[in-house]
């Protein structure tokens, strides 16, 4: 293994992305940066670089320990990189998992399970069984 590699190959080699083409596409879209600069797929990554990967809703940070252009087994990944993502980013991830359907505007789409239960309890509480007993439906 050399001391530098293409960023798209390195991202694929350390299993951050499933394919090299997906890693290259992420670079083209500006999701990958080294330091503060977004990089193209052919940019070289060197030992000691901090690679930032934006995967919604957080930004992961990885320190390059070894540069590799060939895919390695999952057990060997810790030898190639170190995860240095801040705890605040993981808290954001947990909050997004807890919140569920935050982006859905209320009233659009199908009701959630909670909303359905609220609707059912509202309908059940407002129904008066004696109300319909006052009417004689045979006369209609």
Explain what you see.
This protein has 140 residues and is an alpha+beta fold. It is built from 5 helices and 7 strands. A hairpin with a 2-residue loop joins strand 2 and strand 3. It is rod-shaped, with a radius of gyration of 27 Å. The N and C termini lie far apart (89 Å). The model has no long low-confidence stretch (mean pLDDT 84).
Task: Give the topology.
Elements: E1 4-6, H1 7-13, H2 20-28, E2 32-34, E3 37-38, E4 44-46, E5 50-55, E6 58-64, H3 77-80, E7 81-83, H4 87-99, H5 113-126
Antiparallel strand pairs: 1-4, 2-3, 2-5, 5-6, 6-7
Portion in beta strands: 15-25%
The number of distinct helices, counting runs of at least 4 residues, comes to 5
Oligomer: single chain
Distance between the termini: 89 Å
Query: Any idea of the CATH topology of the largest domain?
Result: Structural Genomics Hypothetical 15.5 Kd Protein In mrcA-pckA Intergenic Region, Chain A
Please compute the radius of gyration using only Cα atoms. Answer: 27 Å
- Give the full name of the CATH homologous superfamily of the largest domain: RNA-binding S4 domain
Largest sheet: 5 strands, antiparallel
Structural class: alpha+beta
Strand order of the largest sheet: 3-2-5-6-7
User: What is the 3D form?
Assistant: rod-shaped
Mean pLDDT: 84
Q: Please bin the fraction of helical residues.
A: 25-40%
**How many β-strand stretches?**
7
Integer tally of domains: 2
Order of helices and strands: EHHEEEEEHEHH
CATH architecture of the largest domain: Roll
